[in-house]
Amino acid sequence: AKLSHLDSEVRMWVFEEMVDGKKLSDIINEENENVKYLPGIKLPKNVVAVPDIADACRDANVLIFVLPHQFLGALCSQIQGQVASDCIGISLIKGVHFDDSGIVLISELIKADMGGMDVSVLMGANLANEVAEGAFSESTIGYTNQDNGRLLHSIFNDKSFKVNSVADIPGVEVCGALKNVVALGAGFVDGMGLGDNSKAAIIRIGLMEMKKFTQHFFPGARDSTFFESCGVADLIVTCYGGRNRRCAEAFIRAAGTKTFEDVEQ
Fold it and tell me: Greater confidence, 74 or 189?
């Protein structure tokens, strides 16, 4: 392990699929590459693909959640009895949930489904391919428990992946969801050919709206969080290089010949 307090093996749950007649988990473990979802990128040999969710999480001290949030409930019920008693979690899931009481953070859903586990969040200007290629980027951890925040910082922080930690889970997490809404506006501007000045206005107004929305529903969210990587930096990169921006631009350029669902394919 890079650090003495960390285990050298990283187990990664993989939803089993067949790729060219072979199990995806076998391909990852034999070739150190996720040929379907991250082709061309070699994974470290200590990353082990495990197709059984219970086996992947057994006796784990730290769980990293990176999956569509609609699957959380079913998976957490299989995980809860398998992890170590001191296990903590961190969510990289971008989005929020709504129920009869209003807006609910994904980290709160995980915490509830995992029997009260402490759950932090990580969000930032982190386009996956660039991170995988080792290009420098920054990110933000939002935490409640300071000791857990320090542990998670030691896990993620690296010379090519600079992490700053803040005691503001709602601010960090909601930024990660709302920037995608603003990116749609940026894509519409690009599709209509309105230019960079208009796009800059969308980004500025969007950041102000993100702040207003977040602090309305979560009054404890800090002003400074919006100037972290999870805020303005993630907003900028998503409005220029993100998938939501590209889909919105393609939708406008299709001029009614395609639905938004079509351009997302």
Answer: 189
